[in-house]
What does this fold into?
Amino acid sequence: MKTDNLTIAIIGLGYVGLPLAVEFGKKRPVTGFDINQKRIAELQEGRDHTLEVSREELVEAKHLSYTANASDLEAANVYIVTVPTPIDEHKRPDLTPLIKASETIGKTLKKGDIVIYESTVYPGATEEECVPVLERVSGLVFNRDFYAGYSPERINPGDKEHRVTNIKKVTAGSTPETADLVDALYNEIITVGTHKAGSIKVAEAAKVIENTQRDLNIALINELAMIFNKMGIDTEAVLQAAGSKWNFLPFRPGLVGGHCIGVDPYYLTHKAQTIGYHPEIILAGRRLNDGMGEYVVSQLVKGMLKKRIHVEGARVLVMGLTFKENCPDLRNTRVIDIVRELQEYNTNVDVYDPWVSKPEAEEEYGIVPVDEPDSGTYDAIIIAVGHQQFQNMGAEQIRRLGKESHLIYDLKYLFPADQSDLRL
It folds into this structure.
């Protein structure tokens, strides 16, 4: 098979799949498939609620069509899977979306077809979990009748500088010929080139450690922040001083959520445990980062007590609900840990976030964000997400939201130290 003859189907049109579909759709026939009919209707109308792709970019993808009908995938000979890979309530990998996507593909899979996975998994998952599903449903034989590839996503939601086309892409294939074809295919849209890995397992491992490394670095800084808080030292001032050295890494403390950093390490630790190795450093970092919401609230409560602000029944404003600044993505946001911990103290919590969809926030977390926070009504204010709107408000305007005696906890270092009462 040559790249000239490739017709692509992309399974899953979220933060990863849609930008990919749009870029390929500018060059060759692409069918974008998603089980969410509402999402398909939205895209057919030229709208993307994730804000990753503009209306103009959707128009530019002239060869891209959208469908929720699996039978429309039959014309494809390359399938790219970009579905979520979450964890369950016990922090175990949940491969359900991946398995269901593989079953869908298996129903239309033909001899000579290639299935490429972009979803983050543990090393071995593509060939050990997904390929058997493709074989079972299609009746075809792997690496004789059909082939597999892996090219892990590196999408950064809300980032308008690092886009799918200018982020170097790792590629891999189940045979040398497949690896070459997959690499050539992605090189059509990736302007900065690709890195062809030696095997699918190498590519899977590379992806999962990218975010594990970042998770551990943030955990270290979070622990340092706890130590410096006990010593009465401003963490940001320490990091700025240390950052004057050329090789000091510029990590900052905070909540670690989202669909990657707060999830991917559990995929690696799960696989490690199945082969008889109990990871210590990775899980220690995860425990520390998972506990940051509780720590933030404990610091806030101590601050309120020092100012003689009654905690039970207090009104607290949490500014921001998304997992990161300047994007509407609510997946695995750890701001929810702060909200729930505050509710344990019987406080009245308002959440304000101009980026989020209210129906989505209510469906996902049972939270209905306020339209606008009321001035002069809050005993404490937590700036939990560094949205540009909050920075534009300025510390003085945010202060006016509080009562005469109140606290501001600037979790994101949005303002200088003397403009807030508490920081990490």
Observations:
- The chain is about 40% helix and 15% strand.
- The first helix runs from residue 17 to 25.
- The radius of gyration is 23 Å.
